[in-house]
Amino acid sequence: MNLLLLGPPGAGKGTQAQHLMACYDIPQLSTGEMLRAAVAEGSDLGKQAKVIMEAGNLVPDDLMINLISDRIGQDDCANGFILDGFPRTTAQAAALDTMLGERNLSLDKVISITVDEEALVERIIGRFSCADCGAGYHDEFQKPRTEGECDKCGGGNFTRREDDNRETVKSRLKTYHEQTAPILPHYEADGRLIEVDGMAEISVVTDNILMLLEDGRGD
Ligand code: ADP
Ligand code: AMP
After folding, report:
1. Single pTM value for the model
2. Is 145 a catalytic residue?
3. Best of 28, 122, 123, 130 to mutate for ligand 1, by most ligand atoms within 8 A of CB?
């Protein structure tokens, strides 16, 4: 199963990807995570990406296309993958079609998660994650079961993203509307797009996605 999660920053793509990974046993390919790892490593890509990410802008298409093309070719993607954060421009969407076509692959479904703008800001400002295993949390909407302890790995170190601040959020949302939202019609046109109400509770969103995916399997 090859899936693409689309939606503005904070819509819940990463959160839902975690559930879909477990359900279908396929990896999440998050370009944001890959870039944050490159920044932490201090690689050339990381050095280039750092300033761009802090400003809430997009890393150049050619760098992103190479990054995802290499990743899709890795062994763990043999049974499928969940794209999260790529494509983000019409050029990236076109390049994705080409790279999948060259491998005789296609996207089974494109899941668009919709969320009100004010809710997005609250979600992003309250987001944190486990520094050890990466599990995602929220100050209000998804607290660890035991305060200060990760549900998944039991670790006690948590971290917040540098770009999850009110200033950067504004430019990330603007970037989304200007450069990413225009790719939606590309997927709408051929019937692969399914829209999910991301305002519902996390578990309800997951159930709705799974239901829509299973419906599609009978086609
Ligand atoms: P994205 O990957 O789309 O940027 P995340 O999955 O990281 O978004 O979610 C952003 C924040 O919102 C996280 O802190 C997460 O816990 C929280 N969140 C995700 N889905 C929901 C939801 N349906 N309701 C409330 N909070 C949510
Ligand atoms: P995310 O974790 O998806 O919110 O991404 C964090 C940041 O990484 C974005 O604000 C961009 O600066 C950068 N980024 C992630 N994916 C892409 C992409 N496909 N194209 C360009 N920039 C990206």
Report:
1. 0.96
2. no
3. 123
